[in-house]
Amino acid sequence: MVDVAIIGAGPVGLACGIEAKRQGLTHRIIEKGALVNSLVGYPARMEFFSTPELLEIGGHPFPSKGYKPTREEGIEYYRRVAEAEGLDLRLYEAVERVEGAPDRFEIHTEKDTHLSRRVVLATGFFDVPNYLGIPGEDLPKVTHYFREPYPYSHQRVAVIGAKNSAAKAALSCYRQGAYVTLIHRGPAISDSVKYWIKPDLENRISEGAIETRFNSTLTRITEDEIHIDTPSGAERIPNDWVLAMTGYRPNYDFLQRLGIAIEDDDARTPVYDDESFETNRPGLYMAGTVCGGLDTSRWFIENGRFHAQQIMRHIAHDHPVAAS
């Protein structure tokens, strides 16, 4: 049995493991995918908005060749930190349910059962897309994740959305020779798009290199075209691929299976204590972006990493685990 089981091996989950060790607690980090799985799923050579020092965990310096570190540098940094700290990692092991109570939780995975006195959930929000809910969304040509533009060269690509992910996908595909149409229900590119990307995209739109359908909604996807509801009426255009960059949300089904209550607010915020991050289920804590519910811009690596200190101090000092 360990003192703390941490579900999720992203940057915040790793920070929780490091802080547990520093508070004299034994730990185990259980992850359904790869180490820092969400970063592995980011587009190739993506740049973080944050500077390196804001992404550091455990006091380990984050070396970067540029002012903004890349996805690849981030993956390498967190791997090295995990190895330097000797973190207890169980990767590619999905948690199915958590039974029991404080001082004897049973974490049942698809491979094993782990015993722990406390549990921390640090699963982020990148695993469940915001689906469009329209006919044809399940076709193989549709994806909610964009990793690289090369498969879309000389293809007709519809990019849905107008925030950072959509802007990056549209520009990358265009530069690899794709014929890009950006579709957005709002009137313009979002002001939240990174300052070095937004003018680039707007200029490509102005010169006609990237087509747009603003104030428009995708209503149907077929094998060789898409249907759009535009201010001018219904439109059908030829299409080979749909990149639905519509954002992501926490896995609410999993949260509710764990017994975590959800607030009746617009963000569907999970219930937890603001100081300790303990949820309504005693002994079960939350850390990182998952705490924000649908408000996925509330917590990032740079502020979510500090949840680890609050949680582990609460476990070690305010509500210490039973003696081994």
Describe the structure.
The protein is an alpha/beta fold and 324 residues long. It folds into two domains: 2-128 and 248-318, FAD/NAD(P)-binding domain; 131-244, FAD/NAD(P)-binding domain, CATH 3.50.50. The protein has eight helices and 17 strands. It has helices spanning 11-22, 37-40, 71-85, 164-175, 198-206, 252-257, 301-304, 307-318; strands at residues 2-7, 27-30, 89-90, 95-101, 104-109, 113-121, 128-129, 142-143, 156-160, 179-183, 211-213, 217-221, 225-230, 233-238, 241-244, 248-249, 284-286. The strands form four sheets. Strands 1, 2, 3, 4, 5, 6 and 17 form a seven-stranded mixed beta sheet that branches. Helix 5 (198-206) links the parallel strand 10 (179-183) and strand 11 (211-213). The model has no long low-confidence stretch (mean pLDDT 93).
What's the layout of helices and strands?
Blueprint: E1 2-7, H1 11-22, E2 27-30, H2 37-40, H3 71-85, E3 89-90, E4 95-101, E5 104-109, E6 113-121, E7 128-129, E8 142-143, E9 156-160, H4 164-175, E10 179-183, H5 198-206, E11 211-213, E12 217-221, E13 225-230, E14 233-238, E15 241-244, E16 248-249, H6 252-257, E17 284-286, H7 301-304, H8 307-318
Parallel strand pairs: 1-2, 1-6, 2-3, 6-17, 8-15, 9-10, 9-15, 10-11
Antiparallel strand pairs: 4-5, 5-6, 7-16, 12-13, 13-14
Helix pairs in contact: 1-8
